[in-house]
Amino acid sequence: MRVSGRSMLGAASVALAATTVCATGANAARPASTEPYIPEAMPPGFRVEPSELDGPVFADPKGRTLYRWPFRTMRNGVTGDGKGESNCADAASTESAGLMSPYPGGLLLPELEKRPSCQAMWPPAYAKDGDKAVGKWTVVTRRDGRKQWAYDGTVLYTSVRDRRPGDVLAGDSYRHEGDAPAMREPIQPKSDVPPGFGVTTTLRGRLLHTARGFSIYVFDRDTRERSACDAACEKVFVPMQAPATANAHGDWDIFTRESGERQWMFRGKPLYRYDEDDRVHSLGGGDVPGWHNVYTQETAPPPADFTVQDTPSGQVLADARGRTVYSYTCGDDAPDQLSCERPDDTQVYRLAMCGAGSAERCERNFPYVEAGPGARGSGRLWSVVEIDPATGHFAANGEPGALRVWAYRERPVYTFAGDVQPGEVNADGLGDFQAEREGFRAFWWRDDFFRE
Amino acid sequence: MLLIMTVSLLGAAGARADDAAPPGRTIAYVVTNLSWALQSTPEMTECPQGLNEGVREQFKLLFPDAAGNKRTLVDTQLRRQVESYQPTTAPDALPFLEGQGPVAPGLDLDGTVGPEDFTGPDGARGVDNQMHRVLGCIANYRAPDGPIRFFEDEMVLRENYNRIIVQLTAVDSLVDDPDVDVMFFRGRDKVLVDAGRLKALPGGTQRIDTRWGGRYIQRTHGHIEKGVLSTEPVNLLYPWDAFYMPTDQYMWGARLHLTLTPEGADGLIAGYTDVETWYMHMLRNWSAHYQSYGKSSGPSIYKAMRRLADGVPDPATGANRAISSALAAKFTEVRVLPFSGAEHAAIAAAKPGVPYRGMPAPRPAAEELAETRGSPPKTVNESVAGNP
């Protein structure tokens, strides 16, 4: 039974103007919307690429994001890679593994004739002869005798889904708990935040918070030289104290309050926590005029004709008519835990769930969010893709009858016929394990009840 | 659901404040326990044929692992998931054991004593609780420790999402008052609990949630007689989530029947539960794995619920879309902090009942069945003989 909060992207609000504090000083040359990180030694040619959602990620010399497949205990067994070994096989799985309850393993998987192997989807990050370990990077010998790069002892892969440097389309940095599939994770350098701070990926951006998860805020009226938060204000918005040993570096500075108290400052803005926050990753302080959450980097906004709707649990992203927008999540129960959520994956699972196997019925129950003529996405996350509605797969260019639909991370988004009024989320969590493993999940733009 | 009730003891005409009136003539209660009211005796006399099988057991019955017969995921697991996500009223391929009478908790909702009615544990006749027939012989929902019953009950206290305020005004006494004004709304604070965090304590405070909980603000009237509050029927939308899945329930013609004390309240919330909304609530909170904890099966429950629905006929199809039911509820006294001007305005705008906000009514059964994928569901015997 899950005991933690839902592993959702949403923890932000478009109704409240969040702040990505602009870069100044030593890092001014870097775009303001990228997250600072702590450089570390890497193999020759390897590099760090900024990604729009997950922040900085390590990449191979061709700029391809590097992933690991962490060892995971599932409901009925384990999967993933242990230290120094790869369990990503070069033969396609044929049967379900029964790692998830309650269905047994040993069932023939769908569309076996098309099913790729794990390695076909996750090419190992091979090392060349003579490559040497450096820092956390090591070279391990695979069972087939070839050499593969490892980071912190775990072997590395690239993804055939990623096409451009900074793409992180096949894994993510936020969905690793509960009953989600055994996901691949991009490997990342450490965020450059002082001790006592942390950063979490949200739909809106990389949210800055305390080490315990409580959100950090800045005040419009504060400047680098002066704080407008007086003594009464400080009781509600508590300055983030900087210890005597703290030093300014990069985007981080020390602000000295009138009382002499040293306070952390990020990109020229003194930082606070909100005393009334009783949950981690809260946006509650941002409801106070002039105050904003802080993001080390923000994502590009959703499509212009999307809306944000209030629900009893927070805010969801919705289409132009106010109908809640959903994404479809799917990882199969094979040993290799391959994705079944993208249009270029098998559609058997999705069509079964939303339409009892019928694409037509599926489209009626969970219609695609169609994009208007000329609509184009902004950034890497939101895009317009063409879908063959008869199959659910990507359509060929110019294919008759294809739908132009909105997609998030190249996965189409949907509304639900059972949502009659704006703000209804009647299909959120519909699926296996509250749709963590398979099913539909609402885009939570702000959640006020999911975490304690 | 954490249900808070404020009882203002400003007297109705002719009534008087007495020693039973709480300080300040206002009292608030928070629901600390909530579960479907079922007859669950240790002897299981209400389930003479035993308890129902769940997802896991049904799978084994329908798709046995016979030698030489390789099962496919599509024809087994996905087939059952389809029947769960796209349920129909087609006859169940497996037997379903209904909860039996003659005794079941609940209230007389329709004012008649019919052949399907139960007798309450207190001897009251005409009890309408067809939900007992659906859930009464499913381990997940039975007292005292059915897994879903346990977790849904625990979440009432634990999750702020489930915190509703109901306000009663014009009450002179917790013992006897002919006319009280009842208002429901949601609170936004944790409940005061003891060191074990499982028992609510009276005297905690709550603020009203008008930011996210506006749709839950609603009102009705009632009376108190011999310390028991009875309210007039009202269509009640209430939040009841589990593990952070924001789900609501909708009860047509809901009424409270609660024994009041200065420290708490105890009793029933009874009415006609919307079937589609209940089922979607169940699917979203309790997928097949969780249903297996206590041997329940979504498709079987849905068919039984549609078959036994006895209220709120759909104008379009004539089929009943709701089922008589009761919730066993316990409350603890809390103090509601003074309202702001905006909060007062939100409350003042509340009207009796809440417009229906749940799943759309089901389509006609024939239309559903026509869309059923492939052939009708196999019986157990057919499956054993010709496992797909």
Characterise this structure.
The complex is a heterodimer of chains A (452) and B (388). Chain A has helices at 118-121, 231-236, 348-355, 359-365, and strands at residues 47-51, 55-59, 67-68, 72-74, 77-79, 137-141, 147-151, 154-155, 185-186, 197-201, 205-210, 216-219, 237-239, 252-256, 262-266, 269-270, 272-274, 291-293, 295-298, 307-311, 314-318, 326-330, 382-387, 403-408, 411-414, 430-432, 438-442, 444-447. Chain A has 452 residues and is mostly beta strands. Chain A folds into three domains: 39-188, no CATH class; 191-298, no CATH class; 307-447, no CATH class. In chain A, the strands form nine sheets. Chain A has a six-stranded antiparallel sheet, with helices on one face. Chain A has a four-stranded antiparallel sheet with strand order 13-17-12-18. In chain A, a hairpin with a 3-residue loop joins strand 1 (47-51) and strand 2. In chain A, helix 3 (348-355) packs across helix 4. Chain A starts with 46 loop residues before the first strand and ends in a 5-residue tail after the last strand. Residues 1-32 of chain A have low confidence and may be disordered. Chain B is of the alpha+beta class and 388 residues long. Chain B has one domain. Helix content of chain B is 22%, strand content 26%. Chain B has ten helices and twelve strands. Chain B is globular, with a radius of gyration of 22 Å.
| Number of structurally distinct domains of chain A | 3
Based on CA atoms alone, the radius of gyration of chain B comes out at 22 Å
Counting copies of identical and different chains, the oligomeric state is heterodimer
* Percent of sequence in beta strands of chain A: 25-35%
What's the structural blueprint in terms of helices and strands?
The complex is a heterodimer of chains A (452) and B (388).
Chain A: E1 47-51, E2 55-59, E3 67-68, E4 72-74, E5 77-79, H1 118-121, E6 137-141, E7 147-151, E8 154-155, E9 185-186, E10 197-201, E11 205-210, E12 216-219, H2 231-236, E13 237-239, E14 252-256, E15 262-266, E16 269-270, E17 272-274, E18 291-293, E19 295-298, E20 307-311, E21 314-318, E22 326-330, H3 348-355, H4 359-365, E23 382-387, E24 403-408, E25 411-414, E26 430-432, E27 438-442, E28 444-447
Antiparallel strand pairs in A: 1-2, 3-9, 4-5, 6-7, 7-8, 10-11, 11-19, 12-17, 12-18, 13-17, 14-15, 15-16, 20-21, 21-28, 22-25, 22-27, 23-24, 24-25, 26-27
Helix pairs in contact in A: 3-4
Chain B: E1 2-8, E2 26-36, H1 55-62, H2 77-85, H3 130-135, H4 147-158, E3 163-169, E4 176-186, E5 204-206, E6 218-225, E7 228-231, E8 234-239, E9 248-260, E10 264-274, H5 275-285, H6 288-293, H7 298-308, E11 311-313, E12 320-336, H8 341-348, H9 365-371, H10 380-385
Parallel strand pairs in B: 1-3, 5-12
Antiparallel strand pairs in B: 1-2, 2-12, 3-4, 4-6, 6-7, 7-9, 8-9, 9-10, 10-12, 11-12
Helix pairs in contact in B: 5-7
